[in-house]
Please model this.
Amino acid sequence: MASDHSTAANNAVEESPNDTSKLRTFLGILRKFMGVSDIAAVRFSLPAQLLEPTPNLEYWNYLDRPETFISIGDSDEPLGRMLGTLRFWFTKDLKYVKGKPCKPYNSTLGEFFRCNWEVEDTSPPIKHSPNSATTSAAGSVNGDNKVKVSYLTEQTSHHPPVSAFYVDCPEKGIVARGYDQLSAKFTGTSIRVIPGAHNLGIFIELQKYGEQYQLTHPAAYLGGLLRGSLSVSVADTCYVTCAKTKIKVILEYLEEGWLGKTQNKVQGVIFTYDPDSDNKIKIKDVPDKDVLGRIEGNWQDKVYYTLGSQPFAKSKEKILLIDLNPLFPVPKIIPPMEEQLPNESRKFWQKVTDAISNKQYSLATTLKQELEERQRQKAAERKDRGAEWQPRFFTGSVTPVGKPDLTKDGEEALKGLHTGNFKLEPNKELGA
Model:
């Protein structure tokens, strides 16, 4: 009888907690981690009512606006391509501009996620020279044709928690890849999030030009814990570099304004540099003679650029790089549930997601704990066998640092994703 009562309690519809009570509970849990150098590495388990019913691997992608990604290489000039890279950069985290931050499910070892986006190739051309009206006609090349972007990501390590990702757009000859790993510290009023040791940023390759762009991530702050309204702020410096064109960008995010008012300001400089002697880390370090353009604006609103070395305020022409106001994240196209493997994110978490959606939080927590316990059991079994974990789709668990390579299975999975053939053989190691 006791088990019947327990099952009934688990399946009962419970009152949905509001954001304030969620944050109060979350804050109480976080206080236990004061002084811990990296709470992201601890991987503590949260009760289901504090989670958004979204898998971590699905949540962490940089393709909120894929049309800005596919247009990076449209310019026939190096400066135009760097400006295209920056336009993509300011759209990659649109989810934080348009929505509230959330805590998705922690990824499990061997879990993977794949999806497509199909978008019109309509990003407007970028002006790259005072003497030219625009770059080559970005957006008009493909007319009304849809361009497909495919995305594959896999949890490649559990200690530390690391995932590898690969973005592919064969029609435009552009790929992106990297490792996602976060390091987080609770300060008492906010959570400071920085890239982990394996996360060297996003690496974008333009195959037509043989160029690689490295985009490093700045530190971010998750604030509003005390007032019950989460928000993301950025106060750090980050870099975009292309060794082949010898063009570099320094972006400085400025958070606090007059009387501590949040301003979300970003300013930057685009300049020529020597990849073999890359020692410019602040805007003030860059001599005017090397400056190709300047960036200024609000990373949650509008960002502008100027051409030439003149200070931004004195420039005669401030050109709009991106207006984020009308933009919202583009929906993903995900393989049908019946064609997903058991360790594919949506299917893996399906029962937990259904329970949260039905406000059955006790049941969701129980199901989540069962999944986590199963993962611990599998890890213990591998340890007993002396077996080392190997990802299915990417080479190495967390190496090479920065840029993961695809395995044969990874190449086939991406190709199938792009052609619409979602069939994958089960992973025997996972029994999934």
Remarks:
- Confidence is low (pLDDT under 50) at residues 134-143.
